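LAB NOTEBOOK - FOLDING QUEUE
OPERATOR: T.R.
BATCH SIZE: 2
PURPOSE: Compare the predicted structure-token outputs for two unrelated chains run back to back under identical settings.
PRIORITY: normal
REVIEWER: second-year student, initials M.K.

ITEM 1
FIELD SEQUENCE / FIELD STRUCTURE:
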Amino acid sequence: PSCAVAVAAALYCKPTVVHSTLGFSFPSMRGVVQGCPVGSALYDMAHAAAMSEVAEVLLTKVPPISFEVMERVDVPLRIEDNVVYHVSLHDDLVIASRSTASLSSAREVIASVLERRGLKLADSKGVVLGTRGDVAGLASRVGAKVQLAEMFAGAPLHVNSTEGVDHANRLLQDYVGMKFAVIQSALDLEHPQDMMRAIISAGVWSR
């Protein structure tokens, strides 16, 4: 492992006390404390290594598939059947391609690589964006649902159509409304001490 991973592992070599909702506590030597930024950093390093392996495996396919990082919006994309783009925010992953066959192959390799690392794709959360006839078949094979838009990293991804934009706008309105509702709930507390008591009770779950 890298020096960064070794340092992070050393920081977490002591047990963490886990408090259950059933009224008992126990020490745990696995994982990191909920809400600690090191947890995300450790996962991101492992995820980046996994995506690099996926790229290597896909190049061995016949024909080879190029698995590339999706750059910022001003960087042109290569719209080709043998190119699959990917972008991740921690454990949220987006893959995109003109070819549903290439997408299907990429997903199979991703699932295999993650499984060897003790991780699993959540099929129930999978979403396929598209309107072509072969999109429904891809969604059915991977246990995903077909939509015109979906939220990713706080913003909607959508099909480039009037219906897709409308769907994206509705998702964004719902997302912003949900965030403001949380703030409103905090403002409705009668006394600032109520908020402090809630945070203390939540403990490591306060985020």
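ITEM 2
FIELD SEQUENCE / FIELD STRUCTURE:
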Amino acid sequence: LDEVSQSLVDSCFHISIAKLLAGTFIFRARPGRGFYRPNELSYNPKGIGNNRFERASLPGDVVFYGCIADKTTQLESCRFMGLGECSSLMRDISSIGREFVTFGRWRTLHELKVATFITDKTYLKEQNNRHLHFFREYFAQKKTALSQEILDMAYFFASEFEKSVKIGEDWNYKITANLAHDIFLNKMADAIVFPSVPAGGQGGLNIA
């Protein structure tokens, strides 16, 4: 873990920054049912019980995960993405069973500065994701000013955020988890957005 963290500190990398407007809805899914209070659908404020790596957080980190999508399809898209992220049945296509999932809708009170490592090569086959398309186009416009070393790092980090990770192999998140941790620690952004790997880049973007 220390070696990964130090390597990231020593690296120069490109981050795309955008603003998430106040009043934006963030959808969050949680396995199970019978939740009646907002704090039951929120994050663990003390990080207790979080003893594994996740795509944008280290063990013990307190991070709120959710998803954002185009206003015209946000309910359907975020439900689809949320199921892909938290449902064991969705993540294992060979499984058969019954599962309950509860969805919560949250609204930002203030404008947020969000970072992303989406490049012009991120999920190129997905053409119906407006947010993803925006960041791909943004990177394409900016990349001519970047050195080859920075470009290589950008594509590498983007590939790490797109990596498919099997349940029980959370150590594969070490690079992105350390990267997100450093961004939050150094107050480079309020949140990170990235495509949903289980959803194949469809729907919208995950936010942490």
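REVIEWER COMMENT (ITEM 2): Confidence is low (pLDDT under 50) at residues 4-10.
FOLLOW-UP: none requested
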